Amino acid sequence: MSDIEELQRRITAAMDQVAYGIERLSVAAPQGPDEETTRLLEEERTANAQLQERVRSLRSKSEAELAELRARVEEGEARMAQLDIELQRVRRANAQLADACAALREANTEGVGEPHLINKAMLAELEGLRAARAADVAEASVILASLQPLVDKATAAEEEA
Predict the structure, then answer these.
(1) What is the DSSP letter of 1?
(2) I want to staple 86 with a disulfide (CB 3.0 to 4.6 A). Which of 55, 91, 138, 144 is the partner?
(3) 111 CA to centre of own chain
């Protein structure tokens, strides 16, 4: 970005110099421009137009890159939010499993085997496994999204070689 701003500053300074030169030429030669002055003026106008086009091109390129980076950041934030949700789900499921296991242990110490506690513990364990799987998938998605630009860059480098 700073390169673009530096180029833009330099182009603006060059355009100001051209405008100053044109102004001096028009003041210095009130009798009308000769062929050499006209040719130089046209060359400067052409150079000025080329510089302006380059500034427009650089500006649009930087805006496109900025938009792409913003999209990547937003996508990464969305993936991280999904990972956070899945990790919270794992924590809740593990807490339920711990509660169910504690109730099951308590029932076993009293010598009372309660089927509903066993079912509750099994359901909590299944939910914990599902939540852990979802968290693994979300984490893998974040990792793949982070690695994809590197793979794309390596593929592009191989194609250029």
Answers:
(1) -
(2) 138
(3) 59
Encoded amino acid at 116, one letter: H
Contact predicate 104/117, CB 8 Å: yes
Distances (CA, A) of 90 to 83, 102, 108: 11, 18, 26
Q: Encoding tokens for residue 53?
A: 């086009």
CA quadruple 101, 104, 108, 110: dihedral positive or negative?
positive
CA dist., res. 150 & res. 160, Å (int): 15
User: How many whole angstroms separate alpha carbon 104 and alpha carbon 122?
Assistant: 11
Element (H, E) at 25: helix 2-28
Q: Which of 92, 94, 86 is nearest to 125 (CA)?
A: 94
* pLDDT tens per residue across span 110-149: 877 677 777 777 888 888 888 888 888 888 888 888 888 8
pTM tops 0.90, yes or no: no
Give every CB contact of residue 146 below 8 A, 6+ residues apart in sequence. Answer: 76
Find the largest Cα–Cα distance for the chain: 118
Residues 117 and 107: beta-carbon distance below 8 Å? yes
